[in-house]
Amino acid sequence: MLTLGVDLAAADTRTAMATVEWLPGRAVVRDLVLDVSDARIVGASEHVDKVGLDCPLGWPEPFVALVQAHRLGQIAVADGDGAQWRRGLAYRLTDEVVRQETGIIPLSVSADRIAHAAFRCAGLLAMLAAAGHDVDRTGGGRVVEVYPAAALYRWGLAHRGYKGRGQQVQHAQLVTALGEAAPWLDLGAFEGLCRRSHDAFDSVIAAVNARAAAIGMAAQPSDEQRPTACVEGWIALPTGPLRELIDGANE
């Protein structure tokens, strides 16, 4: 099995992509690149079993309805808690599930700067669909939405404090901790890049999370949640420990 992890930024710069091959008893990072274009992501997707995309795949349905109503001058604000009303505009169903399950609050795709990456992601999903890939925003097709911070939390690893300027020590410690928690994951010649770039590191985590989704070890929406998830997207939270991603593998 091959999985692809993409840490998607608003532009090619700061976008990282990792390819991981899953073999009996081990997994090997076969490729890890920075400054990746949409065309390169689509091309790489042709050769893998699952793509873990670190970016929201959609917007909250109430937010989309608000924009449409605002355009027509037909907004009706419900009486009561205005903050709660605004929260429903800012966060998707899957974001609320992640918050409930992990205590981590994802960035709002309608109210935070991650929306710039989501604009790009919308075009990327259209390109993947045009290339013949099954783009199911719940993760049932080639692409699955992942959230490295939540995955790291689920795997018992540090999920905060390793990004940004001045965080090299924490970042390096996290790469070391990953190696201790998953000794079967071979970063090979790309270990140095993982230690230097948190974008590169997140793309590897995205590829590992894609493996969890591919083998049924990531949360899926319930029947009740699925209609909303089909539109808004669904974050595939890992449901088991790292070691179970490799144990019993038959590939």
UniProtKB/TrEMBL annotation:
Pfam family, any one: DUF429
Protein name listed in UniProt: DUF429 domain-containing protein
Lineage: Bacteria, Bacillati, Actinomycetota, Actinomycetes, Micromonosporales
